[in-house]
Amino acid sequence: MDAFLSHGHTPHHPVFCTVVPPHLLDKVARSADSTRADAAQRTLETDALLRTRRRISTVRGIVPADADPSAPEGPRRTIYDAQHHTRLPGKKVRAEGADASKDATVNRAYAGLGATYELFLKAYGRHSIDGSGLPLDASVHYGEAYDNAFWDGQQMVFGDGDGDLFLDFTVSVDVIGHELTHGVTQYTANLDYHGQSGALNESLSDVFGSLIKQYSLGQTADQADWLIGAGLLGPHVTGVALRSMKAPGTAYDDDELGKDPQPATMDGYVTTSRDNGGVHINSGIPNHAFYVVATELGGKAWERAGQIWYDTLTGGQLESRADFKDFARLSTTAAVARYGEGGAEHQALQKAWAAVGLG
Question: Cα(335)–Cα(312) distance, rounded to whole angstroms?
Fold first, then answer.
């Protein structure tokens, strides 16, 4: 994610955010199956190169724009085909309002960008990622059997997967929403991508990714599967998704991928130097807190629960180095500010943070 300049802050190092965590790819790279190991190794090498490139590139200060009510309603999407190369963006294949492509991957990317735009606009009055109508660009068919998707600070990029352990990364609308929400975080709280602030960054992407899926399917909290990346794992994988918000640690338990390492509560908090201090692992804790809030309140999770999380993310009080306790406190304050003290929302927040050990 690019850094931005805000309130006199110095910019942070730009960070590269992927949906498949490095610890999972590391495990596959040690597989006895050379085809699987090679695909994972290629993906890790590509990710490492991109991560380094982001770190050494000039940090361009992005000033977060105030929401612009005059921004034109409606997304401005452009889909490119990287044609299995890694040079971005690739060949332009579909523009806003153009007819559907013969390529289903192009159409899924286009639809996913639209679903993300629509949730943020209709639910929270936010015009695109930056609040001011930022055009939404995405490249598909990136690299050879590339097992990931990412937001690079300016656009979305999707791999096709290896067709064995991972399928096409456009198949899960929540994955598309997850990555684009990194952009929303970039333009608002700009949470540092390390330790608990990094895990909050990842969790916010999971929360809004899940809400985008629920919104597009018209699901209530009790109808939702609360999975991130359902449909993404190949037919031979013992697992249902990359992560579960309902039951962190249960998304997969596979010979090749290993066991889902996410904790649901602070009792299981993982201290590690890998994965930027476990950003994809400990995100299970705030993820589960959101699930508890949403199911306690019932109905459409993007309405009250999602509104509280959105208010917390965009309210200006969430520091870039915020930890879980900061988020718990600010989200409870946001619930009281919008819905009053002692109501169902305030009680749901208190119950949820207590349930994960942050009461």
Answer: 9
**Interatomic CA distance for residues 202 and 185, integer angstroms:** 10
Kind and range of the H or E element at 39? helix 34-56
DSSP string, 204-239: HHHHHHHHHHHHHHT--TTT---EESTT-B-TT-SB
How far apart CA 70 and CA 327 sit, in angstroms, is: 31
280 annotated active-site = yes
pLDDT in tens, 294-348: 999 999 999 999 999 999 999 999 999 999 999 999 999 999 999 999 899 999 9
Instruction: Compute the distance between CA of residue 144 and CA of residue 138 in angstroms, rounded to an integer.
Output: 17
Q: Single out the catalytic residue among 12, 141, 179, 296.
A: 179
Cα–Cα distance between 121 and 302 in angstroms, integer? Answer: 12
Q: What does DSSP say about strands 253-254 and 227-228: parallel, antiparallel, or unpaired?
A: unpaired
| 179 catalytic residue (yes or no) | yes
